Amino acid sequence: MSMLRRGSYSTISFITRVNIIYRRSISNSSYKMSKRILITDFFSKDVSKAKKTKIQKSKIRKPTEKKKDISNGKQTIAKEQIEKSEEKELKDEKAVDEVSKDEKLVDEVSKDEKVVDEVSKEEKPQDIKNQTKSDEEVSAPEFNGIVKDHPDNYDKFCEKFNFNKSKWVDSLNPEQRELLRLEIESLHITWLAFLHKELTKPYFLKLKKFLKSQSGKTIYPPANQIYSWSQLTPLPDVKCLIIGQDPYHGPNQAHGLAFSVLEPTRPPPSLVNIYKTISNDYPNFEVPDPKKQPGGGNLTKWAKRGVLMLNAVLTVEAHKANSHANQGWEEFTENVIKNILEFHKDDALVIMAWGSPAQKRVAKFKMASNKDHFLVLKTVHPSPLSAYRGFLNSKVFLQCNEFLEKHQKDKIDWGLIDGNIVK
């Protein structure tokens, strides 16, 4: 076969010489017959297939002969074998034997190549256009034209509303920077972008000085949880606003969300009535059982689903209800509500005002022009002193979801136990 590749003699001449080799070695018939069949099989292939096989063999087969120096220094070992005597032709027979072995190897490789081709077809990547379309289908959600690329990544949000936190912090004087350290570190960026101007107003700086003067007392909630409502419910995610009054003033209770308490504290009476109302609206609602799991009054799951539970006053001294009232928190939280209404003016928003104080706060805002986008649900406070006068059968949670669904927004899951979906 090496002679065929080098083109020294024609195919017919080569066949003639090979047949001579086999006739002279006919005594070893079994060996020769196997070789003759292989050679016949090879030359019975069509020309294109033979060429392909020859190319494949040239790629995978190691040469069986090496160039040797002879008297003229130019001829190859293959050409010398043809010109030599019958003794040299016997060596060619070994070369043919090697070719036959290589043929088998080529056949095996060809089969493997077919398998690889089939696998390649199966693993062929999708068309780029289709892939792009798929990526678009699973892209991050948008809010007011801003893509939420990644949790806690609101660069585009700040860019749209022209807020640069670093520059704003640099613009503060040393006293402001010291007084507002908690707000700088704790307020979620979406809220800080809208509230940063409020923080430098005289009333708020006065409030911060008051809180600093109370540093020797026990204050609830802990400082790092005063603004947890902003971290758990970013401004663009707000679907429902529940207005509270002031934080619980006992240990392991207040943690920055109105009506919510930390474990292992059991649900306070007002929250128990809230659970009863949800059960009336959704019979499948499973009330957290403190006997199975300590606590049962933590509403963090609601906050993560778009329910902003905001007290009018954000801090309180231990065991002294309303002790931080009229210090400036009321003005600040009213500004929070104002920004919610402005941000969601063309969106669907539900406001739950339970009790007279909450309803008076809502009345300060003119929402008549946007009544199609805002739903204000007024009822008595869920306290045991008033809940029986209409709160338990108010259907506020059911009405909230019906309104959101009407405006093509996802309903809120009121469930608090894993696997218990309530909406």
TrEMBL record:
<dbReference type="InterPro" id="IPR005122">
    <property type="entry name" value="Uracil-DNA_glycosylase-like"/>
</dbReference>
<feature type="region of interest" description="Disordered">
    <location>
        <begin position="53"/>
        <end position="95"/>
    </location>
</feature>
<keyword id="KW-0227">DNA damage</keyword>
<feature type="compositionally biased region" description="Basic and acidic residues">
    <location>
        <begin position="62"/>
        <end position="71"/>
    </location>
</feature>
<feature type="compositionally biased region" description="Basic and acidic residues">
    <location>
        <begin position="80"/>
        <end position="95"/>
    </location>
</feature>
<keyword id="KW-0378">Hydrolase</keyword>
<dbReference type="InterPro" id="IPR036895">
    <property type="entry name" value="Uracil-DNA_glycosylase-like_sf"/>
</dbReference>
<feature type="domain" description="Uracil-DNA glycosylase-like">
    <location>
        <begin position="231"/>
        <end position="404"/>
    </location>
</feature>
<keyword id="KW-0234">DNA repair</keyword>
<dbReference type="GO" id="GO:0005634">
    <property type="term" value="C:nucleus"/>
</dbReference>
<keyword id="KW-0539">Nucleus</keyword>
<dbReference type="GO" id="GO:0004844">
    <property type="term" value="F:uracil DNA N-glycosylase activity"/>
</dbReference>
<feature type="region of interest" description="Disordered">
    <location>
        <begin position="116"/>
        <end position="139"/>
    </location>
</feature>
<keyword id="KW-0496">Mitochondrion</keyword>
<dbReference type="InterPro" id="IPR002043">
    <property type="entry name" value="UDG_fam1"/>
</dbReference>
<comment type="similarity">
    <text>Belongs to the uracil-DNA glycosylase (UDG) superfamily. UNG family.</text>
</comment>
<feature type="compositionally biased region" description="Basic and acidic residues">
    <location>
        <begin position="116"/>
        <end position="136"/>
    </location>
</feature>
<protein>
    <recommendedName>
        <fullName>Uracil-DNA glycosylase</fullName>
        <ecNumber>3.2.2.27</ecNumber>
    </recommendedName>
</protein>
<dbReference type="Pfam" id="PF03167">
    <property type="entry name" value="UDG"/>
</dbReference>
<comment type="function">
    <text>Excises uracil residues from the DNA which can arise as a result of misincorporation of dUMP residues by DNA polymerase or due to deamination of cytosine.</text>
</comment>
<dbReference type="GO" id="GO:0005739">
    <property type="term" value="C:mitochondrion"/>
</dbReference>
<dbReference type="GO" id="GO:0097510">
    <property type="term" value="P:base-excision repair, AP site formation via deaminated base removal"/>
</dbReference>
<feature type="active site" description="Proton acceptor">
    <location>
        <position position="246"/>
    </location>
</feature>
